[in-house]
Specification:
Blueprint (H helix, E strand, L loop, with lengths): L1 H23 L2 H10 L4 H23 L4 H24 L19 H20 L12 H45 L27 E4 L4 E3 H5 L5 E5 L5 H5 L1 H11 L4 E6 L3 H13 L3 E2 L4 H5 L7 E5 L10 E2 L1 H11 L30 E3 L5 E3 L8 E5 L5 H15 L6 E6 L3 H5 L6 E4 L4 H6 L6 E5 L10 E2 L1 H6 L7
Parallel strand pairs: 3-4, 4-5, 10-11, 11-12
Antiparallel strand pairs: 1-2, 1-5, 3-6, 6-7, 8-9, 10-13, 13-14
Helix pairs in contact: 1-3, 1-5, 1-6, 2-3, 3-4, 4-5
Length: 489
Amino acid sequence: MEITLLIIRLMLFGVFAIAGAGKLLDIDGSEKAVRAFGVPGSISKPIGLLIPIAELIIAFLVLFVSTSWFGSIGTLLILSIFTVGMLWQLKHGNAPDCHCFGQIHSEPVGPKSLVRNLVIAAFAIVLAAAGRSGQGLPLGETAESIIQNLVLAVLSIAVVISASYLRRLTNDNRRLLRRIEFLEMLDNGGQPIERDEAGNPIDSLPIGAPFPDFQLNDTRNRVVTFEHLLADHKPKVFLFVGPNCEPCKALLPDFAKWRDEFGKKLRLVFVSSGSAADNLERFGEELTNGMLLQTNKELSNMVHCKWTPTALFVSADGNIAGHPAVGEAAIRDMFDRLKNEDFNKQRFYLSSPGKPGRIKIGQSVPEFSIEDLNERTITRENLVGRQTLAVFLSTTCSFCSTVADQIREWERSDTNGTQVIVFSEGDRSLHEEMGLRSSILIEPGYSTAIKLGMFGVPSGVLVDENGVIASETAVGGPAIWSLVGKYEQ
C-alpha cells in the first residue's frame, strides 16, 4: 500500500506540475480561458496567473510525505472549483477551451474533461483518506537522496514539457510547409491565377437555414438526393474536395481516421468534381465509394463551399449547423471540436471561433407591442403558432427595396405557412408605397429588432412556431431567403 501511495503522489505531482508549467508558458492563453469561464476582465489576469502557481504548489506538496495530505486537500479543492465551472458552462450550452495543460495541450470543455477531473480526484481522495501520517513511502531516506529524486522528478517533467512543445513546433512546421506547397502550386510559374469564381472563403449561409435539396450522381452513377441522405437521421459533414486538390491529398489519412472515429455519430459525405476514375486514383476505393460528383460545382455554389478542401456541418434534421471550415487547419480544428460535442442536444450548432457573429439561436423572442401600418397591435403572440421570417429593412437602404420586391413575390407564392414580419424605421408613407401585405412595424432605433439579432439592413432571422429564434442573423437578400429554403440557382 505504501508503494501505491507513492505512485499516486508521483502521478499527481506530474499532472499538476505539467498543468502549472504549461499555463505559465502561455499566460495570455490562461487569462483568455479564465475570461471564457465568466471571470470579469478586471481580475482575469491575476486569476490566470494565480491558478498555475497554485497548481505548482500542489504538485510539490503531494511529492513529500510530510506535506502530501495538505496537497491532496488542495487537489480536491481546486478540482471542485474547475468541475463546478465546467458544469456551469455545459449547462448553458457553452464549451470554452479549458486550457487545462496550457501551451502543452488544450481542448474544449466536455465529458472527457469532467471524467479526467473525477479520476484525478479519486486518487486525491485515497491520499486524503490515508491521513497525515499515512502518505506512503518517502521520496528518499536521506536529505541527499531526497534532493536527487526531486531533481530527477523535475527533470522528468521538463523532458515531458520539452517533448510536447517540440511536437507542437513540428506540427506547426508541417502545416507551414503544406501551405507553402499549396502557394507554390497556385503560383503557376509566376503567372497569377484568377480565383474570382471561388468567391470569398469566409462567405457562408446562415446557421439554421435548411440545406438545399440536390440531385447528383455518385461514383457508381446512382442518383442521390439530399432526402436520401436524411434517411439515416445522422448529422452530416459535407467535405468538398477535388481530384487535383493538393491539400485534399494531405488530408487523406485524416479522412480515413475521421470516418472510423465518427462513423457511429455522424456521416461524412464527400462531394467532388471530375470523373469517377480521377477521384478513385486520388482518394482510393474506400473514400470514393458513395462520393457525389458535381458537373459545374452546382452544390458548392449553393452552399458557398467553392474552395477545396472545405467542410460544412449539417444537423440531423437537415439544417446548416456551422460555418464552412476552409483549408486543412480549419477542417482539423472542426473535427477536434466535434469530438466533445453532444449532437443530440436541442438546436445544436457548431460555433465558429474564427468568425464573429451574434447568434441568438434558442432564445425566446422578447415581449413587445408595436402597431403596424394597418394600426393592428403586433405582439410576441403573433409570432407563436407558425414559423416567422423576421426581416429588418430601412427606407434609406438601396438593397432593401430589392428585398421588399422579393417579399411581395413571396406573398404571392406558396409560403408553406411561413409569415413575414418587417421591422423598419423611417417615413410611414414610404413604407406604405412598398405595397406589402405582411405587417410592417416602424420602430425608431430598432430596439426590438436588435433584441432579435439585427445588426444591419437588410437582414433577418427565422423564428419557429414556439416563438424561439431558430437561426443566426442572415445578412443580405440571398441569405435571408435561404432561411426558408429559397435558394438562388
